[in-house]
Amino acid sequence: MVAASTARKIATAARRLLEKEGAEAVSMRRVAEAVGVTAMAIYRHYPDRAALLNAVADEGFEELATILANKRFSGGFEERLAKMADVYLDHALNHPALYDLMFLAKREGARRYPRDFKAGRSPTFNPTVQVLEEGMDGGHFAKDDALAITFEMSALSHGLILLYLGGRIDATPARFRTLYRNSFRRYFRGIRS
Questions:
Q1: Domains detected in the chain
Q2: Taking a C-beta distance cutoff of 8 angstroms, is the pair 146, 77 a contact?
Q3: What are phi and psi of 83, to 5 degrees?
Q4: pLDDT above 80 for 1
Q5: Distance between CA atoms of residues 16 and 29, nearest Å
Q6: By CB count within 10 A, which of 29, 67, 80, 192 is most buried?
Q7: What average pLDDT does range 40-56 have in this prediction?
Q8: For the whole model, what pTM was predicted?
Q9: Computed from CA positions of residues 176, 149, 63, 67, in that sequence, does the dihedral angle turn out positive or negative?
Q10: What value does the mean pLDDT take over residues 179-187?
Q11: Is the bond leading into 114 cis (omega within 30 degrees of zero)?
């Protein structure tokens, strides 16, 4: 139990550094200092820096999956999909460095499209696929590949967020949110039946 507690403290310290200064700041030495252990002690829990960053990213995905699972998305198909997109946006704006690590940084073991998504291995991706399939079965959306459409919607979301976080979109958070939502509304019009 002590080992799990220490591993948890290490991951928490790494995430704090990540959120405050970015992934470059997360070194075994700095994390060890923050936890109050030797740098060598960290290697008992995480074999290397990449494994530690993977643990932090995995925790971010678990957090996002929990938020999605605990929300009760009501309304029509498009309204529910828009609310799900807002959850991603909120998570990205509240945790930009974590978002970058989760979705943009090259990581060992990161899920790959289409294999991992076809196998249903993404609890943050699966809810969107489910709503799209329901919308297709109900005749609201044209029959198509719900997995591919979810991937395209993810690319739209990630692309806009990446441009915004990178300073390429000159807008307040509120104006960016409007641009983001309008982009999805236009996309939904294109996939209706």
A1: 1-46 (1.10.10), 49-191 (1.10.357.10)
A2: no
A3: -65, -35
A4: no
A5: 14
A6: 80
A7: 95
A8: 0.92
A9: positive
A10: 98
A11: yes
